[in-house]
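Morning. Coffee machine broken again, so started the prediction first thing and wrote up yesterday's gels while waiting. Chain of 178 residues, entered below exactly as on the submission form.
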Amino acid sequence: MSRRGQAVAVLVEDGFDDQELTGIVDGLTTAGLEVVLVGPLAGRTYTGRHGLATVTSHMAPGAARARTFAAIAIAGGYAPDRIRMRHGLVDLVREAVAAGRPVAAMGHGAQVLISALVVSGRTMTCWPSIAVDITNAGGLYVDRPVVEDGSIITARKGDDLPQFVAAILRAIDARGAA
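Came back before lunch.
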C-alpha cells in the first residue's frame, strides 16, 4: 500500500519528550508519510524538555481538519499537559476519534485523550504515573508496550517507539485498504 500523499498531524508544544517526538517524526517520514506539526501557533518554534530538539509548527489548530490527516500522533513529556489546555488541539483530537482516524498517544500524551473525553470504555496504556487518570476517566489501564483499541493507539514510553510507530502504520494502512 502506498502512503504517498498522506499526512500525519503531530501535535507539538514546549516540553515534548525529545526522543519520543523525533522518533515518531523520523519513523513516519521514513515510512513515506508527510508529517505536519500542529502547535498552538503556526510558525512558532517549540523546544523539547531536555533541550535536545526544537521543531517549528507548520500550522495552528484552527487551520487543521481531522479529515485531511491519515492519523494524529502525540508525544509525551511535559507538552501534553500544555496541549490539553489548548481547546483547538483537544477539539482536533476529539474530531479525529469521532471520524475513526487513528489517534496515537505516547506516555503522557494520554492526558490529551482524557481531556478530549475519548477514554471511557477503552483499554489503554500510558506512563505509569497517569494510569490512575485513565481509570478515573473510565478507561482500562494495562501495562503493555503498545495497546490498540479501535482507532486509539497508546504506548508507555520512548523505549516502545518501534512498536508504536509500527502500530500507527498498520492503522493507516488498514484504513486505506478499507
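The longest strand covers residues 7-11. Going to sketch it on the whiteboard this afternoon.
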